[in-house]
Amino acid sequence: MKLYEFEAKEILRKHGVEVPPGVVIAKGEDVRAKLDASGLEPPVVVKSQVLVAGRGKAGGIRLANSMEEAAKLVELLFEYPIKGLKPAYILVERAVKHDVELYASITLDRSERKPVILASKFGGMDIEQIAKERPESIVRRYVDLYAGLRAYEARAIARSLGLSGGALNSFAAMIQAMYEVFTSYDADLVETNPLTVLGDRVMALDARIIVDDNAAYKHPELAVERLEGGEVSIWESKGKKAGMAFVELEGSVGIIGNGAGLTMTSMDLVYEYGGAPANFLDIGGGASMERVKKALLLLLEYPKAKSVFINVFGGITRGDEVARGIVEAIKEHGGLNKKIFVRLSGTREEEGRKILEEAGIRVFSDPREAAMAAVMEGK
C-alpha cells in the first residue's frame, strides 16, 4: 500500500524527522479558508498528491509567491492529471531555500533477506539516472535484523556523505527514525528524496512510504481514502478490472509471463539486452485462452509498449491455449499494430507453435533470443 506524501511526512514527523510545515487540502474543501488557517507565508510549494513517480517533471509541483497564487494553483492541480490521475488531495507547504539535495532510503533486499540502507550525496529527481551512471556514489549498508540499526552505523553513513558536526548527528538520528518507521509499519520502502542540510540539521523535503499489503490491516490509522484510480494508473486499473497483475513501468517493451518469477526474469532479460520493460503483466499458471487474449489486448492498446515479449513456460499452462489466446486477441484487435515475440516451451508446445506459425507469428525456444528481438524492435 503506497502512502501519500503528506501521510509519509506525518509519520516521519511523529518519529522526530523534521519536515516543512504544511497543510493538506481535500478536493471540495474551502481552499482559501484552509490556507488562511494554516499560518503559512509565501513562498509556498503546491504539490499534487498522486501515488505515481515523476510528479515534478509532469508539472504536479509548483511554486507560489503569494497565497492568492497558491489558491489558484491548488484549484488548477485538482484538475491537472499526472500520468492520467487527478489528485484527491493537494499538499501546500513552506518553500525551503536550499543548496544541497541528498537521498536516503530503507528497503528490503530479498536476495539477502535483510533491510538495506541506500544513501547518496546526489539526490533529486534524477536519482535513478545517477545510480546508473555513478553507482559508486550510492552508499549501501545492510542492517542486522536482530541488532537493528546501531548509532555508530548511522553515523558512518552520514560521514560517507561528507557530513560532519551537527548535520552528521541530525542525519544519523533521521536514518535511525526511518528504520524505526520501516520496522514498526511493516514497510517495503521508506524514502526521502530529496533531503537537505540546513546548517547543523537535516530536513526531509519529500517522503515516500510503501507498506506491505499483507500487513495493512495492522495499521488502521492509515485510513485516508484512496479513490479508484488514485492509487494506480489508468492502465493498472484496467489490468485490475481484467483480473491481471499489471504494473505500469517506464520502458518500451511490453512483457507477458506466466508466473511472477518468470515475468520478472523476462524483465531482467530485457534490461540485459539494453532495453527497459514497459510493464509487468503476470497471467498466472494455467492461464486460459480467454485470459491470454485479455492480456495481449491490453498490451496492444497500451501506448508505452512498442513491442511485446511473451514468455511462457508450460506446466499447467497449455501451449495451445496460449497460442489460441494470442491469435484471438489479434483478430479482435483488427490486426497487429506492434510486433510480438513469443517464447513458448513445455506442455503442448508443438501444437502451440503450429497455431502461431500458421498465423505468421515467430516463435522462439530460447527466451534470450526472444527478449533480444523485442528490445531491438522496441527501441
List keywords for this structure.
379 residues, alpha+beta, Dna Ligase, domain 1, D-amino Acid Aminotransferase, Chain A, domain 1, Rossmann fold, 3 domains, four-stranded antiparallel beta sheet, 16 strands
How would you explain this protein's 3D organization?
With 379 residues, the chain is of the alpha+beta class. It folds into three domains: 74 residues, Dna Ligase, domain 1 (2-Layer Sandwich); 116 residues, ATP-grasp fold, B domain (D-amino Acid Aminotransferase, Chain A, domain 1, 2-Layer Sandwich), CATH 3.30.470; 145 residues, Succinyl-CoA synthetase domains (Rossmann fold), CATH 3.40.50. The chain is 36% helix and 24% strand. Strands 5, 6, 7, 8, 9 and 10 form a six-stranded antiparallel beta sheet that branches. A four-stranded antiparallel beta sheet has the order 1-4-2-3, with helices on one face. Helix 2 packs across helix 3 and helix 5 crosses helix 6. The longest helix is centred in the middle third of the chain and has 20 residues. The model has no long low-confidence stretch (mean pLDDT 90).
